[in-house]
Amino acid sequence: MADNETPATCIVQTVPPEIAAKIFTHCLSDSTSAPDPNTAPLLLGRICRDWRNLVQDCPQLWASLKIDQSRIPVSLIETWLSRAQSIPLILELCVPGLEDDDWDAAKFITVFQRHSQTWRDVTLDLPGEQLYLFGSDLPLPLLERLTMTDCFPEAALPCNAFRNAHALRQLTLARAVHPAVLQLPWTEITTFQSPSGSLLPEEFLTILQYTPNIVDCTVTLYNESESDGLPDVAQLAFLASLSLETLIPGALDVFDHISVLALRRLDLSSILFSGRVLVSRLHPFLSRPSCQLRELCIRIDGDKPREDHFIQLLETQPALERLDLVEGSLGLLIAICQRLSDGSPLLPRLTSLRASPHIYPASEITNTFPVMLDALADALTSRWVSDSFAQIQDCTLSWSGVVTDDLEKIVVAFRPRQKQLVALGINMNVVQ
Question: Going by C-beta distance under 8 Å and a sequence separation of 6 or more, which residues neighbour residue 190?
């Protein structure tokens, strides 16, 4: 369609402008993206003059921007952000490869800086030394989420550009940084993530010392402690959800140095070392009276714990409502199911059970897998008809390891029993 054409069927002539603008917002990418003439909003402005005028006057279309290459003109960035007016911004500023001689961090940062009053969600993939280019005490009344992907240089001076972000609630760090260097309103943060694995246990604990109001924490620890002793953290009165991924048994030492009062969800599904060691190291933490979980997701990998030791671990959590058991053995799942069905008070409030045992060797398929299915069905039935315990309303079973034709036959033979459980009202899923 030519730029000077305005056909009677043009959408802006048949639909109120505010409705057309709403329609246009559905053309935007789900993720933050760099300016592209072949995607919205730039593409929409190329259709005709009326569309272009409407697009330019719709600030919602310009509220998200990613800069990941130096070839994007600074003038385009300024125009883009200006069109967003007072709409809260989602921004990503990513440094190109170090070999890019055209990259001038200061000119890009200056443009972003001018619009700091409307930042809401910002990702800064920049070398730590370039963060100082943002200056000091930016006005950041709307900033709720901040992601930083690089580290500060050794013996860095304090970076205080972001310390006035008093609305900040979510922080993601890909590299270690001491809170004294990256000056933030740390006590305002309620969600912290560090997925890269670069943090040392002592660095993680130091961050917890600065974030007493944290509610949700997800962290990956791939390094042994480099200190003689780890710092203790005062009570985390509001920490409700903790997800920990690690390959290092010593990373679990952090549990000895934190005190929780409100922890309700613990995710250890990415613990990639001996399940026996995990259970042993975790037991003292879960045995504390203040630790009363509602959800536990745990991976039992490698060297498996004794079945009675794992059940003793579960006995510390009478308030547990959801149990996700990743890997583990068929024998362990059988032992749990037998305790659930024999009238013992193990997990009396359990309403959701998800298990994905590891099958090995192949002989377990014919010798043990059918026993496990029967034990699971018995446990679900027993808890459903009991007046003393909560009903297990949701159950999902999957598996890994050896798979043979015999396994398929056993699953098919179990389907009538599965249908009986569903008829009771149990959401029973067998995922092959």
Answer: 169, 170, 213, 214, 215, 216, 238
User: How far apart, in whole angstroms, are the C-alpha atoms of residue 350 and residue 373?
Assistant: 19
> What are 292's two structure tokens?
């009363």
Indicate left, alpha or beta for 197 from its phi (over 0: left) and psi (-120 to 50: alpha): left
How wide is the angle at C-alpha 420 spanned by C-alphas 417 and 421, nearest 5°?
A: 95
Burial readout 108-141 (b: 16 or more C-beta within 10 A, e: otherwise): bbebbbebbebbbbbbbbbebebbbbbeeebebe
Q: Quote the tokens at residue 417.
A: 């029993």
Residuewise pLDDT in 10s, the chain (432 residues): 445 555 534 555 676 767 777 776 666 666 676 666 666 576 666 667 777 777 777 888 888 898 887 678 888 899 989 988 999 999 999 876 555 555 688 888 999 999 999 999 999 998 888 889 999 999 999 999 999 988 776 667 899 999 999 999 999 998 888 898 999 999 999 999 999 888 889 999 999 999 999 999 999 998 777 777 888 887 899 999 999 999 989 899 999 999 999 999 999 999 988 999 999 999 999 999 999 999 999 999 888 899 999 999 999 999 999 999 999 999 999 999 999 999 999 999 999 999 999 998 989 999 999 999 999 999 999 999 999 999 999 999 999 988 888 999 999 999 999 999 999 999 999 997
Give dist(CA 389, CA 350) in Å, integer.
8
Identify whether the C-beta of residue 79 lies closer than 8 Å to the C-beta of residue 114.
no
Q: What is the pTM of this model?
A: 0.89
> DSSP readout, 8-29?
TT-HHHHS-HHHHHHHHHTTS-
Q: Residues 6 or more apart from 192 whose CB is under 8 A from it?
A: 170, 171, 172, 173, 207, 211, 214, 216, 217, 218, 219
